Amino acid sequence: MYIKCSFLFLQLFTLLIQLFLCKNVKESNDEKCGVPHVKIDFNKRIVGGEPARLHSWPWQARLLKYSSNHSAVDICGGTIISSQYVVTAAHCVWNKEKNKSENASRYLVIAGDHDRLSEWDGETQNVSLEYIEAHPDYNYNSSLNDIAILKLVTDLKFNENVSKCCISSTPPVKNEFCLATGWGVTQKVTESKDFLRQVNLPIISTKLCRSVYFGDKVKSGMFCAGYKRGGKDTCQGDSGGPLVCKRSGVWFLTGITSWGVGCAEPNSPGVYTEVSDYVQWIQSVVKIYKIMQT
């Protein structure tokens, strides 16, 4: 009887150890997403947006392309969705002459940055690309399926300055205020700003955007955000970057900056790739442990 009880106790103890180990493995592989370490204030109404707080958008990435003289130039933004992958717009990495994505060796991703021209804002992580996976049905002329996945050569190290964004599996909601970020142009004929900026934008219904603004140029997998009066918008250099919406205290990647007519012009909102339409495709490419969804 004593031997039998000891054996049962040993089995129970082994089971508890296994459950504990499994729990720790799950927790270590399931980092939080969409929750910055810095409090975000996006209620201000500053025309054209405002500078972001330092490291308030830790999933924001810079995408640079090497020029013929081997210097790296900012071309787009991107969103970190795991330690190995960044999502951006397909047009940022597209060779329209060859009608395919560019060679991955021509690009560099920088994570954890805020002020592009100084190092006071903390250590950045500069990572080359292993490969580029543009959506197989991307159309450069119509901007249909304007989304691409960038696989990094080495994993990003998540910390207070670098972390991943959650991915939204639900469409944006009409009149919901969401927030776009980037280092793009802030006014016409001006240089891109060196500090990361943010702008809050209301979601426009697709029906309204088609009937009032862009007609059938707004395809399936796109949505509009912005103001009828203009004044706030994303612009050149912001392409590929995130438009995120806050739900239950968590930020979700809802849109990817894609295209527009001018910048912050009246009756000309920005057009974004609707991420929820591409969740299955993203998962098929990324195959990460878990993507938190709405």
From TrEMBL:
Organism: Helobdella robusta
Protein name according to UniProt: Peptidase S1 domain-containing protein
UniProt-recorded Gene Ontology molecular function terms: serine-type endopeptidase activity; serine-type peptidase activity
GO biological process assignments: proteolysis
Residue span(s) of domain Peptidase S1: 46-287
Keywords on record: Disulfide bond, Hydrolase, Protease, Serine protease, Signal
Signal sequence segment: 1-22
Entry-linked Pfam families: Trypsin
